[in-house]
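Page 47, continued from p. 46.
Same chain as before, 496 aa.
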Amino acid sequence: MYTHENKILEAKQVFDGLKDYIFQAVSQGEAIHTVEMSVWVSVLEMGRLFLQGFVAEHGDGDKGETLTFPGGRTVKRLEELHERRYVSIFGEFPIVRRVYGTRETQKIEAVPLDASLQLPESDFSYVLQDWDQNFCVQNSFEESASSVQRILGIGQSVRTLEHMNQSMAGYVEGFRESQSVPVEREEGALLVVAVDGKGVPMRRKKGDAKPENPRHPKKGEKRNKKRMACVGAVYTIERFERTAEDVIDEALRKKAQEKRPRPKHKRVRADLSRAVDGQQCNGKDILFGWLAEEVQRRNRKGDKPVICLADGERALHEATRRTFDEIIEILDLYHALERLWDAAHCFYGEGSDEAEQFVEERLGKVLEGKVGYVIGGLRQMATKRGLRGIKKKKIRDITGYFQNNRSRMRYDEYLEAGFPIGTGVVEGACRNLVKDRMERAGMRWIVEGAQAMLDLRATYLNGEWDAFCNYRIEEETKRLYENIVPFEPIKLRLAG
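Result:
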């Protein structure tokens, strides 16, 4: 069994060797990048030795022949020393310690040294888990494993990182509930919720139908099996009054407003339909439950107008009505604009000046609150032009879409009140939260793995990663060690 002094001495020998190497590298004219890499390898080795010395200083955790729990139950010290693997950012080494229980073949009930050191439940250090998953929420598991191995020289399998990801994600919901409400003076005058959906490619189960030729699927066949993730965002924002012409400049002429306010304390998340506590739950219900809680927390006085931005999907509209008693529903303008372009191309060629003029005129009417005029005009124009077949059906679908969403298209009132009318925030979340990580080439997910990644990636994108990692350490430490006495926790904070 190693001692504190032995490991410190070994670390000093590495340091002395590094010092000698530096002088030798100067005399031999080595390139700085070669020296840099050699120094880094020595630093990792010294770090491992110092960390082993730190552990050795604690001894083996022997608390006597017996150990008494707070409730009075006593367990005895087992004869054999037990070894566990510990993988730190400096490398791997064993930790040997005394354990307590009823007898050797039964479950170990207490390990005082583990409690004193606040060792994680897994073999991997909390710092390494933090770094691992910080890579994983941004890149594939394989790329992340490769990056960590290149930097730290630590080899980890994709399966290890996937298991770690799901284990960490189990703490996300508790972390969300623990977060304090933003300070009122830092909030905007309007409270906004925005919802949308984005498909996640899933692994096919045995027996699932699949195209005969995945590269060239036949009509009705799907290249990928997807499950819809319901994506939501909640934030506050200041009022921003503007005219219809201002919006047309932004939407069609790409002239951004210089003084456009920015969302404040934006939080995003995405939910798949899945089993929760043994019961199958719809992703929309889970997401809207969270949105309702956020609205209640951030509008306790009820003095902020609450706005819901979404597309024309009926299920989202119905979920909004079920969830909120008083809310201002607004159809995302860009979904309306897409329909206007589709209508234009029923009459004029794509890319033509006539099509652009057609859209600009009708967008102006929509922004002035004259949706009925646009609906009637499209129907009349289709009749006069004698549209048939697909184009006639498209105009019917477009006018039906406007008619069904007419109550959510009072854009003249929204602009005058300074309300947002676009879902750019949640569409950005669909891209950043879901697509950029979940839909890379060849990626296929199972529900549990996909939801774990969505939870951790949302935490990362919300700017809460360091706070979450510290929360997770504290909660896991309580669960593992709060009933072990004596327990003197070492305060650990991951640098952020």
